[in-house]
Amino acid sequence: MAEPGNKNADEIEQMPFERAIAELESIVKRLEEGSVPLEESVAIYERGEALKRRCEHLLRQAEARVEKITLDAQGKPTGTEPLDVD
Question: In sequence order, what are the residues at sequence separation of 6 or more whose Cβ sits closer than 8 angstroms to the Cβ of residue 3?
Fold first, then answer.
């Protein structure tokens, strides 16, 4: 949960998955290049961690909503049940 007054955390908590993952990939690329000053590296690393947590949260939500279609003996859909991801 975002801390009161923490605009960056609030912004990240509202991001859709696609935007969060794109920004996270951009941060990883910048850090891997090694041309970012130390202080900025620490700041963008911390933002990257928050983006990673957001992506993981959204993926867990999506997994919880995925359902498997059940079929009868003739192969016709009869309903849905939770997807067993194990």
Answer: 9
CA dist., res. 55 & res. 45, Å (int): 15
Whether 58 is in a domain gets the answer: yes
Count of domains forming the chain? 1
Cα–Cα distance, 22 to 69 (Å, whole number): 32
Angle between helices 7-14 and 38-65 (to 10 degrees): 30
Torsional class of 79: left (φ above 0), alpha (ψ -120 to 50), beta (otherwise): left
DSSP assigned state of 2: P
Give the pLDDT of the chain (86 residues) as one tens digit per residue: 444 446 788 999 999 999 999 999 999 999 999 999 999 999 999 999 999 999 999 998 887 777 677 777 887 878 777 666 55
Answer yes or no: are the C-beta atoms of 68 and 81 closer than 8 Å.
yes
